[in-house]
Amino acid sequence: MLLKPPLPPMEARSVEQIPTEDGWQYEPKWDGFRCIAFRDDEQVYLQSKNGQPFARYFPDVANAVGALAAKQFVADGELVVPVSGALSFDELQLRLHPAASRVAKLAKAHPATYIVFDLLAVKDGSYLKQPLRERRQLLEEFARTSFKSAGNVRLSPATTDLEIARAWFKKTGGDLDGIMAKRLDAAYASGERTAAVKVKQIRTADCVIGGFRYATGARVIGSLLLGLYGEDGLLHHVGFTSAFTKQQRRELTTKFEALKKKPGFTGNAPGGPSRWSTERTGEWEPVDPRIVVEVAYDHFTGGRFRHGTKIVRWRSDKDPRQCTIDQVEHREGKSLKLLQR
């Protein structure tokens, strides 16, 4: 093979709007792990975004790539785990486990799928310098001949139709993490952000402050802990917000230390088992859940905001009991119908 791992994947810079001028190819941005697959006869190597081997965590995908008709190729794509017709990022993260027996059990229960969106090489021919419009044609032909018998290796859709891209963007929040836009005339920019952009749909939700954490090594607030009421009537911890100035931290410390009161969260609380857990997860202070804040977020999955949120405004006009989980629970699964064999 001409191309060998590690190969830095092409990156994308974040923008606020989908590009509308001519010359762009649009693709769904799947909610998974980036993966470059190298196949050289009987040898299969799955590479993570940061250049590390992935096959030990996804033996099912490695076997599927090794069973394809094509014997020598390099492809770029996304690893996802479908569960009950929707993609589960929680199940995906569970695969990163040190015990091979545990990984095998997870793979059997919920096999992963490799969604391919670029073809980088076949045999000794590298496609890195070819424009995307040519690589896409080569990929579609490759998929027609190679993916038919592989249910968990699939072709990601692509379009130059802006209206179709906008329709995909409306599905963001379920299986889709946003929209990718790539220059049709651009080569594969390994390790660079020059040929592609990504657009995520930012949403807002009204949350209750159920507690806070002090900053490391200081007696000022480092983060506020967010809660939402579930159908069970309990306040469940769903994430945090922490983008504060020094002055704001001092003011928030005075405000919320005066509200300290157990239990804070009456349902799921910080410190429980979670893929987001850290050594400081259990160190938090409960407060009387009377303060409501509107926060902006990009993704909600597994009962949590995936990343930290940003405060939009304080909602003194809103009753905490109005802050319910149905604000953020999206109906998932429809986007999987976009995939082709």
CATH first level of the largest domain: Alpha Beta
Overall number of strands: 20
CATH topology of the largest domain: D-amino Acid Aminotransferase, Chain A, domain 1
Mean pLDDT: 91
CATH superfamily of the largest domain: DNA ligase/mRNA capping enzyme
Q: How many independent structural domains?
A: 2
Order of helices and strands: EEEEHEEEHHEEHEHEEEEEHEEEEE
- Tell me about the largest β-sheet: 6 strands, mixed
Rg over alpha carbons = 22 Å
Helix fraction by DSSP (H/I, runs of at least 4): 10-25%
What proportion strand? Answer: 25-35%
Given as residue ranges, the uncertain stretches (5+ residues, pLDDT < 50) are 273-280
Strand and helix map with partners:
Layout: E1 13-14, E2 24-30, E3 33-40, E4 43-48, H1 59-66, E5 72-80, E6 82-83, E7 86-87, H2 89-94, H3 100-109, E8 113-122, E9 125-126, H4 132-146, E10 153-155, H5 162-170, E11 176-183, E12 196-199, E13 203-214, E14 221-229, E15 235-241, H6 246-257, E16 285-286, E17 292-297, E18 300-301, E19 304-305, E20 310-314
Parallel strand pairs: 1-12, 8-10
Antiparallel strand pairs: 2-11, 3-4, 3-5, 5-8, 6-7, 8-9, 11-12, 13-14, 13-16, 13-17, 14-15, 17-20, 18-19
